[in-house]
């Protein structure tokens, strides 16, 4: 079983739409959670960390559900510039590996 | 300030050849990671350095892969007897406190 599972999409949404991505993880002892964004042929960049209490950064909201072992990312009022691949990242309770999901592709359409 | 840099940006080699990929982390970052990313996949962990030592090399796929970081800064990923399946983007990341900053990657193509 993979450490992190994501729906690869693609998600094609109109500008202004709200879109949500989910990601599940297999290790209940996982400690830290992140969402990274990766543009085509570019390196991944941190979008936001995910905290137990949930956190918001402008149009982006991240949530963690430890009981069900999933994290989510909500994007409100989608912009064309939000088009990218969104990678879910989980770190285990021990060790230093970052486990990446396969990424979810988002295209925002004018 | 300067980010993580990687050289070369592209490398084409023939099956069976030896290649070296270089990573220059952000100055002062003690942790350095190597990942491999194939098309349509997320980055796959290869090895992690804390300072000069390889703290976790459990992601290296086999003994053809080796990495060093002799002075605790620049790192080199070495691949012996390359195979076509080694073709991928090799990403390096560095960090000081948690967040990993990625370099642009080296696109390796093995013919």
What do you see in this structure?
The complex is a heterodimer of chains A (110) and B (111). Chain A is mainly β and 110 residues long. Chain A has no helices and eleven strands. In chain A, strands 2, 4, 5, 9, 10 and 11 form a six-stranded mixed sheet that branches. Chain A has a five-stranded antiparallel sheet with strand order 1-3-8-7-6, with no helix packed on it. The termini of chain A are far apart. The mean pLDDT of chain A is 92. Chain B is an all-beta fold. Chain B is 0% helix and 50% strand. Chain B is built from no helices and eleven strands. In chain B, strands 2, 4, 5, 6, 9, 10 and 11 form a seven-stranded mixed sheet that branches. A four-stranded antiparallel sheet of chain B has the order 1-3-8-7, with no helix packed on it. In chain B, a hairpin with a 2-residue loop joins strand 5 (44-50) and strand 6 (53-56). The model of chain B has no long low-confidence stretch (mean pLDDT 94).
Unreliable stretches of chain B (pLDDT < 50, length at least 5) are none
By DSSP (H or I, 4+ residues per run), the number of helices of chain B equals 0
Helix content of chain A: under 10%
Strand content of chain B: over 45%
Low-confidence stretches of chain A: none
Beginning-to-end CA distance, first to last residue of chain B: 37 Å
Structural class of chain A: mainly beta
Rg from alpha-carbon coordinates of chain B: 13 Å
Class from secondary-structure proportions of chain B:
mainly beta
Q: What is the helix fraction of residues of chain B, given as a range?
A: under 10%
**Oligomeric state, counting identical vs distinct chains:** heterodimer
**Describe the biggest sheet of chain A?**
6 strands, mixed
Give the helix/strand layout.
The complex is a heterodimer of chains A (110) and B (111).
Chain A: E1 4-6, E2 11-14, E3 19-25, E4 32-38, E5 44-50, E6 55-57, E7 60-65, E8 70-75, E9 84-91, E10 99-100, E11 104-109
Chain B: E1 5-7, E2 10-13, E3 19-24, E4 31-37, E5 44-50, E6 53-56, E7 65-68, E8 75-79, E9 88-95, E10 101-102, E11 106-110
Parallel strand pairs in B: 2-11
Antiparallel strand pairs in B: 1-3, 3-8, 4-5, 4-9, 5-6, 7-8, 9-10, 9-11
């Amino acid at each position: 079983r993979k450490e992190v599972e994501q729906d690869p999409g693609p998600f094609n949404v109109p500008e202004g739409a709200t879109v949500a991505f989910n990601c599940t993880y297999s290790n209940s002892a996982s400690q830290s959670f992140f969402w990274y964004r990766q543009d085509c042929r570019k390196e991944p960049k941190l979008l936001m960390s995910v905290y137990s209490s949930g956190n918001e950064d402008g149009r982006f909201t991240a949530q963690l559900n430890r009981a069900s072992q999933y994290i989510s990312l909500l994007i409100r009022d989608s912009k064309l510039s939000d088009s990218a691949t969104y990678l879910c990242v989980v770190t285990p309770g021990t060790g230093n590996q970052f486990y990446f999901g396969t990424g979810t592709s988002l295209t925002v359409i004018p | 300030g300067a980010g993580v840099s990687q050289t070369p940006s592209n490398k084409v080699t023939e099956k069976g050849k030896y290649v070296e990929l270089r990573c220059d982390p952000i100055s002062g970052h003690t942790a350095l990671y190597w990942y491999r990313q194939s098309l349509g996949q997320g980055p796959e962990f290869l090895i992690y350095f804390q300072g000069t030592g390889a703290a976790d090399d459990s992601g290296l796929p086999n003994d053809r892969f080796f990495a060093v970081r002799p002075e605790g800064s620049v790192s080199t990923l070495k691949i012996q007897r390359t195979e076509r399946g080694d073709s991928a983007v090799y990403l390096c990341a560095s960090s000081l406190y948690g967040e990993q900053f990625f370099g642009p990657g080296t696109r390796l193509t093995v013919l």
